[in-house]
Amino acid sequence: MNTSDANHLQGKRILLIIGGGIAAYKSLDLIRRLRERGAEVRVAMTQAAQEFVTPLSAGAIAGGHVYVDLFDWRTEFDIGHIRLARDTDLVVVAPATADLMAKMAGGHADDVASTVLLATDKPVLVAPAMNPHMWSNAATRRNLAQLVADGIAVVGPNAGEMAEQGEAGVGRMAEPLEIVAAVEARLVARHETAGSLSGRRGLVTAGPTHEPIDPVRYIANRSSGKQGFAIALAAAAAGADVTLVTGPVSLADPPAVTVIRVESAREMLAEVERALPVDVAVFAAAVADWRVAEPGAQKLKKGAGGTPKLDLIENPDILATVARCRSKRPPLVIGFAAETEHVIKNARAKLDRKGCDWIVANDVSPATGIIGGDRNSVHLVTRDSVESWPNEDKQTVAHKLIVRIAVTLAAAAK
Ligand code: C5P
Looking at the predicted structure, is the pLDDT value of residue 181 above 70? Predict the structure, then answer.
């Protein structure tokens, strides 16, 4: 199946749990969007959700019964809450209220929604929606961190006006199409991306750079190159013509990828510019910010002169150079951000500073073990949305990114 067909939800079963927030009205549109892509949608609603939209309207749009009561003998007889939890490909919670997230984090099961969420063995995606103060409250932050640690994916919330007059900030539920995109990214299997980037050219940077101090010493960092290599491989597997420009790493060339190995940031920039034009460029390299202004032509010696003084000068910013390039700017430019605090806030600032389209942000505080490790917890930050992906192996992160790239390029081509 081709990802650009935009019907890769065909035949997929989605269980939508509607929580009790004003954003519930958007969930009706979400049902419609999922169904028009061929998904089968079952709906469960919390008691509070029924104050905002009725089971009748949700059921009419979904084309089926809506599950609202754990003890309703008709629905229990019909499929039962355990089957409801299992007999699906994905569970989506939209809107996920602060209360529902707290229940999920705590493992409560006192209504049909929370019971199904506790009983399911399928992937879960939540679309939070709440007042900005509730979103930034320490209890919600704790619950969110717990959900992400439990493998639950998160889309949004977005910044903007709230339903309450005069209130604005982060807390609006992601738009239905953003939720659909997150559902797709979660569900599209690897083999389904085959061909989705055929005819496209892709460029990926990976690894650290080495900045010489003298002929034998250099400044480097701990980047392994694994994430960039996985992205290049996934893009090639999706049919793209891929150039991978990598700094020094101990990884084998991925099959069907043109690999160019470089040492320094300046060499990397030169090779990147040579590879343009491309349809998509992903900058996953951990480029050294500085280089030694005048590297020694010979090995620096210990001696009477004392410790050598190294003057540093700034390296070119490869991502910003390409993102701001007038003539050959790729239609989709994606940067990475390794942050140790305020991950999303800093990623948004980076998006503006570098002029790129998306930032894949990850928390690399030493406790996460991400640098050099095999797994990654990332947030996909675009101009108007944030998606937090659960902690996953780097191949899965790469695959999901390729799904998003393929869908975005296909939509832009229409
Ligand atoms: O500014 P910072 O290093 O955090 O930005 C990270 C992003 O910018 C990554 O995508 C990285 O590949 C890219 N970058 C670059 N050239 C640099 C520094 C960073 O391409 N000199």
Answer: yes
Q: What pLDDT, in 10s, does the model give residues 117-130?
A: 999 999 999 999 99
Question: Checking phi first, is residue 306 left (phi over 0); if not, alpha (psi -120 to 50) or beta?
Answer: left
- Gap from CA of 15 to ligand 1 centroid (Å): 39
Percent of the residues in the chain that have a pLDDT greater than 90, as a whole number: 67
Residues with CB under 6 A from ligand 1: 205, 265, 283, 285, 287, 315, 317-319, 335-337
Residue 120 has a pLDDT of 95
The residue ranges of every structural domain in the chain are 3-188, 192-413
Is 116:15 a contact under the CB 8 Å cutoff? yes
pLDDT at 78 over 80: no
310 vs 377: CA distance, rounded Å: 36
Q: Does residue 261 contact residue 244 with C-beta atoms inside 8 Å?
A: no
Give domain 3-188's CATH number out of 3.40.50.1950, 2.60.40.10, 3.30.110.10, 3.30.9.10.
Answer: 3.40.50.1950
What's the 257 CA to ligand 1 centre distance in angstroms?
22
315 is catalytic: no
Q: Which of 131, 221, 362, 376 is labelled catalytic?
A: 221
